[in-house]
Each structure stands twice: as C-alpha cells, then as structure tokens.
Amino acid sequence: MSPRLFLVACFAALAVAALAAVAAGTILIDRNLPPEVSYVSNIVIVYGGGIMFLLVAIIAVMWAYLDHAVAQPLSTLVRNIQTILYANPEHQIEVEDAHQLGALPQAVEELVHQLGVARTRVNEAIAEATTRVEEQKRQLETILRELHEGVIVCNLNHHILLYNDCALDLLHVGGQLGLNRSLFSFTNRQPILHALGRLTNRLAGQEAHPEGLTVPFVCASTDGRHTLEGRMGLMLDVEGNPTGYVLSFRDKTEELAALGLRDRLLRESTEGLRGPVGNLRAAAEILVAHPDMAAEEQAPFKQVVINEANFLTTRLETLATHYRDVITSHWPTTDIYSANLFNNLMRRLRDERHLEVVMTGIPYWLHGDSYTLVEVLDMLIHQVNQHSGADTFDLEAVAGERHVYLDVIWKGAPIPAHELDTWLDRQLEDAFGRLTIRDVLEHHKTDVWSLPHRETRAQLRLPLPPAVQQGAKRERRRMPSRPEFYDFDLFRQQPDLTEIGDRPLKSLTYVVFDTETTGLQPSGGDEIISIAGVRVVNGRILTGESFERLVDPGRVIPRDSVRFHGITDDMVKDKPPIHVVLPQFREFVEDSVLVAHNAAFDLKFLKIKEEEAGVRFDNPVLDTLLLSVYLHDYTQKHSLDFVAERFGIEVRGRHTALGDALVTAGVLLKMLDVLEARGITTLNQAIEAANSIVEVRARQAAF
Fold this sequence. Notes:
The chain is of the alpha+beta class. It has 22 helices and 17 strands.
C-alpha cells in the first residue's frame, strides 16, 4: 500500500470514529434530558451536528496537509530512488521544498552521494593496485627494451602480461598491444597451443628433451601477412606449477616471401608456359623438317606460331602486372550511411543466398568503399552459414571512440581465429581484379575478428573509421518541443485487449512512430507531411524494419513549422498524399502495439484521415509521455528531450519523424525496465497506468 493510500485509510477511519463518538454522545444527552428541559433537545442536536461538521473539516484539513507535506514527497522520493537504481545513476533527487520530511531527502541524497563516494574509493583502490602492477611491468619492460628480439609474456589464458617495443615492430601493431588482451588477437592460435602442449607434456614427465622447457615454433600474425619464428619458454611458480610462458621471436616474412616469390615465378614460368612453348616447338619443327611444303599447307603452322607467340606475350605481361603494389595504390572511399550499406547487403543475401537478415540498432555514418565492403560482408556471412549452419543474422552498427564497428551476429559459437584467417584469402565472387577479402581489409587498413556476443550468440566485428565530413554527424539546433496534447476520448477508446493485454510487455512487438505536421491543430486544417515508424521486437530496435515517408499535405507549409522539422514545400512536391501513404503505414504496423511520445497528438491526425484513407488504427497504444508522467510525477519536464536525458539516451536527428521515432524507441526500452521494477509487467497494467494520468489531466481540465 502506498503512503498516500495508507494516509487516506487512517484519516477515513479517524473521521468515522469521531463522527460515531459525537453522534453517540448527542443521542445519550438527548435521551437523558429531564422532561422539564426538553426544549434543549433541539439545541443539543444542532450543536452535535456542528461539532461533527467541525471535526470532519479539521480531519480533512489535517489529511490534506499531511498528504501534501508528507505522503506526496515520500512518493516523489521513491520515484527518484527508482530512477537512480534502474535508469540513470547520475539522476539528481528532486523534492519540492514544501514538505515535512525533515532531513530525510537530504539524508537519502547524502546516502546516494556516499554510495557514489564508496564506489569511487573502490575504483581508486583498484586503480592504485593496478598502478603498482603496471610499475612492476614497466621495470621489466626497461630490461627487455634493448633486446633485438620480440618478447611477449603471457599467462596460461594467453592474455598478454608484458611485451617490448621490438614485439610491436615485429607484429606491425600501431600504438600498443594492450595488456590483458588475448595473444590470439595478433597471432594465429594453433602453433602457440601446440608449442605450449609440448612444454606441459615435458613438465609432466611425458616427454624428455635436452632443451628443457623451451621449444621452437613458427606462427603468423592474424592477418597472415607476417611469419614469426622463435622459441617458447615455460614459466613456473615456486611449487613448480606452470603460470605462463615467454615468447621470443623474429620476423621471417621477407625471407620466406623471397622463397615463395621464387617458387611462384618458377611454377608460372614453367607449368604455365609449357603448353604454348610445346606448340611453338612442334610447329617450328614441322616447318623446318618440310621446307618444300606448299604455302597453303604451311599457313596453319605459321598461324600456330603467331597465336602462341601472342599468348606468350600476353602471359608475360600479365605476370609483370601481378607485381604491382595494389595495396598501396589509390582506392576511392567516401562517407557511407550504415543503413544504406546494410540495405544493399540484405537484398543480396535474401535474393541470392536465401538467408534471413535483420538490421538492428541505430544507424551511423562511417568511411569506406561501399561496393567492396558489401562484397566482403556477403562472403563472410556465406562462410559463417557454411561453417555453422546459421541462416538468421543480425546486422548492427555500433559507435566506438575511434571506430564504427560493423557487427554480424548469429546464434552459435564464434569462428576460431585460424578458421577465419583461412577465409581471408578467398577471392570475392563478383569483385573486379581478383580481390580477396584480405585485400579489401588491407585497403581499409582494418581487420575482422570473431567473438562471443550475448548468451548463445556470436559475432563478426569489422572496425571502420567514422565519417570524414562533419556534416554527416551534424545535429539540428535544439528547438522547443510540442505542447502536451490530450484528446481524452482517444484513450478511453482503447480496444478490448483480451489475450494480448495479459502478455508481458517485453514479449510484445511494438511500432514506435512519429509524425511531422504543418502545425499543431489537427482539427483546424493542419496536415501530416512526414510519418515514420520503427519496429521493436524482443528488446531490439530493428532499424532495418522501418517505415519513412514524406507526404504532400495539399497546402503550403508555414515558415514557423519549417523551423522545427526542416521540411519545405519543394521537398514534398510530387510526393503521395496521405490517403495513399496511410494504408502503407497501416500494413507496416500490422497487429503491433503503437507507441509514440505525446501519442494523442499523432493519433488525432491519423484518426481524422482514417475514413479518407479507408483504414482504421484500432491497435493498442502506449504513450511514453504519459508513462513518463506516471513514473516521474514529481517533475513537469516530460518533453522527449528531457525524458531521453533523464534515461541517459543520446539524442540524434531530433524533429525528424524517423529520428524522433528512434529516440522514442530507446526511451521505451528503458521504461520497460523501470515499469517492471514498479510491478507493471503486462500491457493491461501499462495502459491502466497511462490512463490514470489521462483521468487526472481530464479532472484538471474541468477546473
């Protein structure tokens, strides 16, 4: 029971008890009056009634004061604490000054502050301990710095504990290897595991060797471009148990490449030219052996000589062309929108590979060559399908500090590094110049690796540089939000939800939508000029399943409206009217739950056009504005900008229909967690919570 409801119950019981006591006293006095003063009876009753009225008034005033000064601030305090626990740890507690909680809000805020301080101290202690370990490692690095061999020290989990500068040079890593990173991010796995297995067998006494606990090994960098040769030594603790190993190595790439180039030239200059040279020799021998042969009989043999000579010339030119350094040649790249890149890839995978592919997350701008990236991702996904049998994939762009990561996600295990490395030398099917996956990755100065994703899922991750042009990332100037819009009848007409109403909120499919309009008066002639929606399924924003249309409003767009959304008359000229677009949007929505911020505003525009478009939007509706008021009733700040900020969501593309829909989708996912913490887990409960706010606003509007 909430504090406010408990307070109402207590004061109601007190009022009933007081009324009963006064009434009983009045009756007793009236019945026991002597007959000679019976005329006083009416006076007693009047005074008794007055006392009852006075008591009720005093109790009501006391209840109203305590509700305003104690119960409401307590509820606000609970909402603030829930927001801090489940949504935004940085949220500041907001309680109105007119309360009688004493120092409780300050104590709670101090408790939260002390919790933050404690966390900070723990982090500082961890950082201090880490610093001490780092200092010890740096002392060892000083000793190793002057060595002319690369040295890497790893634990038995193959995480790097120490390395020297020469190792950086030999592995051709820009910057740092990174302590505690896996060694297999830089070298292939199996040679290292094999060498470590030999050493552990020796230690167990299963393999005696005069070299003791060291073995030679040959491995390659993960991109296969560099071959490393060296020795591995086992490290033991005081009890003789293995704790890690030391690698010392040199780069043998150029030496082996020289041998490989010699072998390749020898093979192509012998096997590849043997046939044409044989034909030439045979034709020449016939011509020499039969000098008196008639001219018409010599012509075919002479033609053979000409054809084979031409072939040999072309072949030699081709061999020479292969020496060109295509890796360092100019390669055209440009800024790419990840949604466009993924859409091209999805069409190919669905049409040619017959794979199910879903685009998720929020799109980002990146820099690269769209054509070859699509070719590489297509080939990699095909290889994953062949390797693991997965036929359903998610595509997502994730923003990092210095890169935009293209993630390919599937249900299954990660691809082993050595297996993935073999794929990189496969030629792309439709790419020009016989490019391999490795060639394209080198053109983009990047790599690809596989790692676990979540639960039973895995992913391939391809890092690419962010967009070069700042215009690709520009944000619109922050504009005022729409005023809150209430059409109370729209929410009273929620459909009979039957089975779907009892389903958990997190199991439902949502379409989060938004509209841009010519103005704020749906009943006063304003029209929709843009409508967009994005689907949310199983807690994932399916960016690939989005809807976005510009609409010809059939009227001039006011200049004040253009300031908000940037849509001009020229942009909507020749676009379809609303009665064409609305059925398309209805087909996209299907049976999903509709979600919008300030949903009554957008729904009013849709409802007005239902008859003209021949459709009906009778889906269940959730309004994130109403849910925000319900969850955070202590504040009046419920615009999309403030709600997104409260939940720690980065706002992009505001005042565009699709941009606002994506932000609202992010807000919805955050709200579902907070609603669950408040005990609201089904659609019926969420709609009831939102409708309670509508009823409050309706009562307020009546005054």
